[in-house]
Design brief:
The structure holds two protein chains of two kinds. By secondary structure, chain A is of the alpha/beta class. Chain A is about 35% helix and about 25% strand. Chain A starts with a helix and ends in a 7-residue tail after the last helix. The chains are: A alpha/beta, B mainly alpha. Chain B: Keywords: Cell membrane, Membrane, Signal, Transmembrane, Transmembrane helix, Transport.
Chain lengths: ~500, ~325
């Protein structure tokens, strides 16, 4: 590194951030040289995002943030890519207009080059944000954040909502872009950090507890939190089998479902055959748009397929009378990706649970929550707590099948592990049948006996979780490759 | 886009046809025999013989089936012949020609006043940091919301004309004097204000306020700030453009409400428009005039809705694609 490069660095000294009533970030010191990627890793609530916002000038703070020894200029020196890309773009304005207004404000930058840099066709400038897929929207947001060539790019959980293959594409592009920039990668996922970051800083309760080159942090962690995060990332213990089985059986034959949105038609399910035995835990994995959630809707007897049959305990759910079908639905617990959105904000936790079945304090105890929480409202709950309440609600209706749609996406790794432990414990103790849709292979390994891989509406692989690494189908191999950490030997 | 526009125009035309059919129905169902009235008018008030009436009925085609008569009426209407006033004997179109421009002037002024004021007050209410300012706006809107338009009109009349003589109390010029631009403006202020700030005004303020407040903390506004865009761009493009969609979507219906208020306002302020004419025609049971006024009011509302829809489509691309899919 030449002396010139050494001078080009982002330096944070004694950074403090207060929210009303308390201090969240306690005197942070950090130096990131140009051309390097630093991953700021930590569980939810550790102050990662507030630190990033303070650096970008979005948050009032104490201490100093310097670039090459002078204070950063807000809007000029730091580009910021938000977690939810499509919400971070104005729905009434094209991508091209977003790029052009930034270029005009700073009198530098080239919109087409920015789009190309992030692997997008410059013709996409004419598109509106809502016309893009999740991966395209995130890449467009990154192009918009960097079009005026800021010295620093902050990528704040940019891939949390993306499937692993899209995540790989996006982060590879960020890494390529980092050649002439300082990149701050905010993430709760050490696997992401290990593959794409040069350095890792672990944040815990507003303090940096560990900071060093990626290889060193991974092989020789010095803090307990780092060890816990590493363990959670590596934990692939197979789930325990239930002692006695009470769950229901699901059989799907030649299932077809066409989705008609506006004038587009998509074949979401294209002839799926699937047998799920009582007490089995099955993970359905695949990329976004592979038909996972549509399949789950069909299994729940909520969404009527265009062809094929869904059998529950040997009976065709669409051939039975409506009353019997509603009884089947009552025996099916549903857990959603965004539990908070599935709660009525005016209800208390007790009312949320009671809408599914009789409330007892034991339900909350079982999911690891304090029964005193029953009178709180969902708005005050954390992501992990919300998901536990959702599970308690599903249990209140005494189901024999539990269907979960991405139950852990959006949660940090430690919370993810607790929710998955809860699901596997539930099956062990109650013998329920569990079907979980996820794009996270780690979650699949952790909670399922069997993995079904969907690709473009077809089940391309169906194998025991233990054999996942020997899978042959290209779609499965692609998913596996996207989450394999590239560890540099120490 | 041209295709979408055409489809909207076609819908508007269809609504206009339906409206004209209803108007014709009203006219047809009105009591009294047009043939008898015509004969009465010709003979200077003497009642006509049944034979003469029957003869004229046949001549006027009044014995034909309703669809035939509707077609004849509509084709006359399209050529600018809406019949004659049974009160004055003048062609109805001449009466409309005298009164409609005054009403259009008044409603245009009131709309401009109402919508720009709602925009300004709504933006202040959404973005003001001072709590007393927001509460003050709330209070004023609350009082205005409880006040029917004619009460507001009488109050304005009392305060600014009767008690203080600051403003002329009615008409379009001083009695006996010709209409001048300045005099017209002075006479326009009170009725336009009465029409603009009726009980519906608060709804528009709320639509602006809530729309803007909802996007104020949206990630895309924060994103615009963090990219260092000038404050003006952030407010106009990233806050107002998506934030004003609910407000503009309501403008069409708002124009309708406003035009409905024109009848009482014109009577109170002696404004020589079609609202006052309509009230007079209703008293005199002058159905041809009344029907023509209902028809032209309806056409203005249809046009206003069309314009409002186009404004929304220009603001929000999601509506544009929705329009395309509706085809």
């Amino acid at each position: 590194m030449s002396p010139h490069d050494a001078a080009r660095a982002l330096t944070v000294e004694g950074l403090t951030v207060d929210v009303p009533g308390r201090r969240v970030v306690h005197g942070l010191d950090l130096t990131v040289p140009a051309g390097r990627i630093l991953a700021l890793v930590g569980p939810s609530g550790s102050g990662k995002t507030l630190t990033a916002r303070a650096i970008a000038g979005l948050q009032p703070h104490g201490g100093s943030v310097l670039l090459d020894g002078r204070p950063v200029r807000r809007g000029r020196d730091v580009g910021y890519a938000f977690q939810d890309a499509s919400a971070s773009l104005n729905p009434t304005v094209t991508i091209g207009r977003h790029l052009a207004e930034t270029v005009r404000a700073h009198r530098r930058g080239d919109p087409s080059a920015a789009l190309t840099r992030f692997g997008l066709d410059p013709a996409l400038a004419d598109a509106y944000p809502f016309e893009l897929s999740g991966g395209q929207a995130q890449r467009a947001a990154l192009a918009i954040a960097t079009v005026h060539e800021p010295a620093v790019l902050i990528a704040d959980e940019v891939t949390t909502a993306l499937d692993p293959i899209t995540q790989e594409t996006v982060l590879d592009l960020v890494k390529a872009d980092a050649r002439d920039r300082t990149v701050l990668l905010i993430t709760h996922d050490l696997t992401v950090a290990s593959r794409w970051a040069d350095d890792i800083a672990v944040l815990h309760a507003g303090r940096i507890v560990e900071h060093g080159p990626t290889a060193r942090v991974l092989t020789d962690p010095r803090d307990d939190l780092t060890r816990a995060l590493l363990q959670a990332a590596d934990d692939t213990r197979a789930p325990e089998r239930p002692a006695h089985i009470t769950g229901g059986a699901l059989t799907v034959r030649n299932l077809r479902r066409e989705l008609r949105a506006r004038r587009r038609r998509t074949l979401a399910l294209d002839g799926i055959d699937l047998d799920i035995a009582p007490g089995e835990a099955v993970a359905i994995v695949g990329r976004s748009g592979s038909g996972k959630s549509t399949l789950l809707g069909a299994l729940a007897a909520l969404d009527r397929p265009d062809g094929g049959t869904v059998h529950r305990d040997g009976r065709d759910v669409w051939a039975m009378p409506g009353r019997a079908r509603r009884a089947v639905r009552r025996r099916t617990g549903l857990i959603f990706q965004n539990p908070a959105a599935s709660f009525d904000p005016r209800h208390t936790v007790r009312q949320v649970i009671a809408e599914a079945g009789p409330y007892t304090p034991d339900l909350l105890r079982y999911v690891g929550l304090d029964p005193a929480m029953a009178d709180r409202r969902p708005a005050g709950l954390s992501g992990g707590e919300s998901q536990r309440v959702a599970i308690a609600r599903a249990l209140a209706q005494d189901p024999d099948v539990l269907l979960a749609d991405e139950p852990t996406s959006g949660l940090d790794v430690l919370t993810q592990r607790r929710v998955l432990d809860l699901l596997t414990g539930l099956r062990r103790d109650r013998g329920l049948t569990i079907v979980m849709v996820t794009h996270d292979l780690r979650a699949a390994r952790r909670a399922a006996d069997r993995v079904v891989v969907l690709d473009q509406g077809r089940a391309v692989d169906d194998l025991p979780t233990g054999d996942l690494d020997e899978a042959r189908h290209p779609a499965t191999r692609r998913l596996l490759a996207a989450v394999t950490p590239h560890r540099t030997p120490p | 886009m041209a295709l979408r526009l055409l489809s909207r125009l076609a819908t508007a035309a269809l609504v206009a046809v339906a409206l004209s059919a209803v108007c014709f129905g009203l006219l047809d169902a009105a009591p009294g025999d047009p043939a008898a009235s015509v004969l009465e008018a010709r003979s200077g008030g003497r009642p006509a013989t049944p034979a003469a009436i029957a003869e004229l009925r046949a001549e006027m085609g009044l014995n034909d089936a309703p669809p035939v008569r509707y077609r004849r009426w509509a084709s006359h209407a399209l050529r600018g012949d809406l019949g004659t006033s049974s009160m004055s004997g003048r062609p109805v179109t001449a009466t409309l020609g005298d009164t409609v421009p005054w009403t259009l002037l008044l409603t245009a002024a009131a709309m401009l006043l109402s919508f720009t004021a709602a925009l300004a007050v709504g933006l202040v209410a959404a973005l003001a940091r001072r709590a007393w300012l927001r509460r003050g706006i709330d209070l004023v809107l609350f009082v205005m919301g409880g006040m029917p338009g004619f009460v507001a009109a009488l109050l304005l009349l009392y305060v600014f004309a009767a008690a203080t003589h600051l403003m002329p109390s009615g008409g379009v010029s001083r009695p006996g004097e010709p209409v001048t631009a300045y005099g017209l403006l002075a006479h326009l202020v009170l009725p336009a204000c009465a029409l603009a700030f009726g009980h519906h005004f608060g709804i528009y303020v709320r639509l602006v306020e809530n729309g803007v407040r909802r996007v104020k903390d949206a990630p895309h506004v924060e994103n615009a700030r963090v990219r260092g865009l000038p404050g003006r761009t952030v407010v106009t493009r990233h806050l107002m453009r998506p934030g004003l969609v609910p407000f503009t979507a309501r403008l069409g219906a708002g124009a309708g409400t406003l035009i409905a208020g024109v009848y009482a306002t014109e009577v109170i302020f002696s404004w020589p428009g079609m609202g006052r004419e309509a009230v007079a025609a209703a008293r005199a049971q002058d159905y041809p005039v009344l029907t023509a006024i209902v028809l032209s009011t309806g056409l203005v509302v249809i046009a206003a809705n069309l314009v409002a829809e186009l404004i929304v489509a220009a603001l929000d691309p999601r509506v544009r694609t929705g329009l395309a899919d509706a085809l």
